[in-house]
Amino acid sequence: MNVNDAKQIYIGDVGPGVKKRDPILIADSVTRTFGGNTAVNVEHVEIPRNMITALIGPNGAGKTTFFNLLTGFDKPNSGNWTYDGQKLAGVPAFKVARRGMVRTFQLTKSLALLSVMENMRLGATKQKGENIFRAMLPFLWRDQEKANTAKAMELLGRFKLDTKKDDYAASLSGGQRKLLEMARALMSDPDLVMLDEPMAGVNPALTQSLLGHILGLKDQGMTVLFVEHDMHMVQTIADWVIVMAEGKIVAEGYPSVVMQDQAVIDAYLGAHHDVDLGTLTGQLAVAEDIDPHLVEELREEVSADPELAEELAEEQNRTEQ
Ligand SMILES: Nc1ncnc2c1ncn2[C@@H]1O[C@H](COP(=O)(O)OP(=O)(O)OP(=O)(O)O)[C@@H](O)[C@H]1O
């Protein structure tokens, strides 16, 4: 049970769209279609302030699209949402970040060719009130640049990337890239940090450090919303879990409770309704979606048992033929 389980996060009956005691973000009737495909169809959802909320769901559930909409990287067909009481729908991404809501974005090819420090500078938002007159007065923006560099160095130190500041971001390991993405997001002093699969591609050596950093954001008063497939991570650090399937919110609750929910189990297994769970291959495919650690455990079990190993090899032979 999480420490925050002791606090009541919601008001009324728990379920999809439940009201929160202190929401930082409230979204209503948000839809996004691609051709005939409805990627997002969220009736109502509230994100609790100063909590860590996990957004989970099978592949293609609409999680990333919903993130993109909320942060102004994509436009909805319909819908409204407020952040800290201010209307945010239709506000472009760079302005969303200035208001205190920021998402990590993956290290793209072009960003990989910049140095670690250059990546950090990209994360700094322009100061409020900056205008053409300020731009014409170098002594003003030089101070700003100095302040940004100092802040970047402080953050890089915290994330143990300071010795890499002049290296190409491309030279970082998967885990270090995730740390850089998070450090870059913090350059704009956000109140709400949205992380898209923070654990993807991170080796076990850096897992603990990443988890610690995410918990640290909450300790510093921030709200965290993250998309993740790694159920171990969700159970470990989330205060609240929201489940999406086929564009809709299908379940919400405390992690300990929501993971037992039939709708959640169905949402994951739904993606594999054509999988034969009587086969080892089928079980591995489902486990992959639920928890990558589970797959590792299953694989270890199989390789330790010659009979199972032979069974899996036979199944794989059959599918290859
Ligand atoms: N730019 C796009 N053009 C067309 N279809 C898209 C686009 N972006 C997303 N989709 C579709 O919208 C649906 C939701 O995709 P989305 O990536 O948001 O799901 P997700 O829950 O983030 O999945 P994953 O866990 O695999 O990242 C999918 O059917 C996807 O194919």
From TrEMBL:
Bias type Acidic residues, positions: 303-314
Domain of life, source organism: Bacteria
Cytoplasm in keyword set: no
GO CC list: plasma membrane
UniProt GO MF annotations: ATP binding; ATP hydrolysis activity
Domain ABC transporter: residue ranges: 25-271
Stretch forming the signal peptide: none
InterPro entries cross-referenced by the UniProt entry: AAA+_ATPase, ABC_AA/LPS_Transport, ABC_transporter-like_ATP-bd, ABC_transporter-like_CS, P-loop_NTPase
Name of this chain's protein: ABC transporter ATP-binding protein
Organism expressing this protein natively: Subtercola vilae
